[in-house]
Design brief:
The protein is mainly alpha-helical. Helices cover 72% and strands 0% of the residues. It has helices at residues 15-32, 40-47, 51-57, 62-80, 89-106, 108-116, 124-145, 152-174, 181-200, 204-216.
């Protein structure tokens, strides 16, 4: 008789592993469909589990699951700006934007639903999660500028640019992802430098920063 290959032993997932599995399934669905069009049955089917199991881990239902998935996506977006403090600043910014825009491209429908709001799943908690991504991204950028105690004009410029990146990403999706991602990335980096240049006319701190950036080019 030909020996048969042993059947892999069944391994019960830990609580954390099961939770991650359900969140991953939810993120796949939210990435391509607005939150109001995703049901718990859809998540259960995507994960290959029963609906009661989804409720066991998320007794608050779809809203709790959506908020947990949103936090997971927010963590990923925040990490996009977590770039090593090495090399020219604008090159670092380009790499961070590459990761950010790639995330946007891969999660287009979900990204739009998340940032545009108006969803039945939107609450003050979900709005807070999204705002946390914007603030964290701004803090990452400020840390790369290497300015001790950035003043209000510089901080405002960075936060305004983060808002422009977000808005530009949404418009890019509306325009069928045109121009190409690499061109959009370079354009956004140029806009950052332009915004700093305008602020430099009113703020000596930013003026010194722009001079330092010019020396890098």
């Amino acid at each position: 008789m030909t020996p048969q290959a042993p059947t892999p032993a069944y391994r019960r997932l830990s609580v954390e592993e099961r939770r991650v599995q359900l969140l991953d399934a939810a993120l796949v669905l939210f990435a391509h469909r607005p939150p109001q069009e995703v049901s718990l049955d859809d998540v259960a089917e995507q994960a290959g589990v029963s609906r009661p199991l989804v409720y066991r881990y998320f007794p608050g239902g779809k809203q709790q699951l959506y908020e947990a998935a949103l936090r997971s996506a927010a963590d990923e977006l925040t990490l996009c700006f977590d770039e090593p403090h090495e090399g020219p600043l604008l090159a670092r910014l380009s790499r961070a934007l590459d990761r950010y825009l790639t995330f946007v491209e891969e999660h287009d429908t979900g990204f739009s639903a998340l940032l545009r709001g108006g969803s039945v799943a939107e609450t003050s908690r979900t709005s807070s999660i999204v705002d946390g991504v914007r603030r964290a991204a701004a803090e990452h950028v400020l840390s790369h500028l290497g300015v001790a105690g950035p003043g209000p004009r510089l901080r405002m410029t960075v936060r305004m640019w983060i808002t422009a990146v977000e808005a530009g990403s949404l418009i890019w999706l509306d325009e069928d992802k045109q121009p190409p991602l690499d061109e959009l990335r370079d354009w956004l980096v140029e806009q950052f430098l332009a915004a700093l240049t305008v602020t430099a006319r009113r703020d000596p701190q930013t003026e010194a920063l722009v001079a330092a950036l010019a020396a890098e080019v």
